[in-house]
Predict the 3D structure of the following.
Amino acid sequence: MTALLEHNADLSSLNTLGLPARAACLARPQTLDALEQVLAERDPNAPVHVIGEGSNLVIQGDLPGLTIALGIDGMAKVKQDEQSVWVAAGAGVHWDDLVAWTVEQGWQGLENLSLIPGTVGAAPYQNIGAYGVELAQVLEQVTVMDIATGTVSHFPAEQCEFAYRDSRFKGRDKGRYIITGIELRLNRQARCNISYGPLAQHFADKPAQAVTAAAVREQVIAIRQSKLPDPAVLANAGSFFKNPVVSAEKADALKAAFPQLVAYPQESGTKLAAGWLIEAAGWKGKRLGPVAMHSEQALVLVNHGGAIPEDVMALAAAVKRDVWQRFGVELEQEPVVLP
Ligand code: EPU
């Protein structure tokens, strides 16, 4: 089977921030064989870019070389024992379809990660996390194809070097592998994590048996929809900055000066709520040209229409500058920048 290549392809609908860009050559392989073929036939000296649904992406300009939007489909139960069920999914599956399907089966583990935009393949790349849960907690293994050799291998979760919004695939192995699928280990009984404040509050007066994966999913969806803009309605790439981790001393000093500061002590250092810092620096709901920091969640940069990469970079730089000047805290951009 010959995988179809599209030349000079429009990427504006393949990045949820809605930036205008083109790919010199775009492939959408649907199978492992097709992916292998696309890689084998490419110009080995030209760069390879991999995108899912482009929901965590800032495309700064046209992409040279080969761009791959992976379409490998499929979700299936692999095996089960008394406590657990193992589930496999292809990299091209829409993430929330996987969450919805597992929750419908009565399996527990993904419900806090409901409604996160993007594909299954992108999930381990940045170790998606929300409402007290990170993918790393339920991930069994990641299947990858080596771009240089086409070899397929499996990395157990312990070897993926997962950290907050990070993995080896985004770090030291960046550009080396294409994630083609994942395997998860989920619970057959509800052992839901409702530690996130608004979730704990919602379930506080409810009996323990009401805390099902389906009920938690419903709440997570409600919380997300109340704060986070739907990229299909208002273009955005989710959180635009990571929550910065500072030393405990620095956090204490900030807390003394700004008692409202939202801070979470970690094993090492203290994580600060970047949304709070951005709001306190005056940027919540504030527009700069066609882009703005969202009015309900200051951590999300939105494109009201017609933005070019320079608009995004100008707003990001202004927010970073003001947060630095006010708090002496450096914000790090969260979405992946291409090329
Ligand atoms: N806050 C403000 N102003 C704002 C936004 C937030 O003061 O405009 C304060 C809130 O009051 C809250 C705290 O900051 O006390 C934390 O806010 P929230 O619970 O909304 O979460 P977050 O830290 O801003 C992170 C993730 C989100 C994830 C939520 C929920 C990062 C970079 N972002 O945001 O992930 O959905 O927690 O767990 O860690 C994403 O990665 O794209 C994303 C949306």
Q: What stands out?
A: The longest strand covers residues 177-187. The pocket of EPU is lined by residues 130-131, 227-228, 238-239, 242-243, 262, 273, 275-276, 279, 284, 297-299, 334 (CB under 6 Å). The mean pLDDT is 97. The chain is about 25% helix and 25% strand.
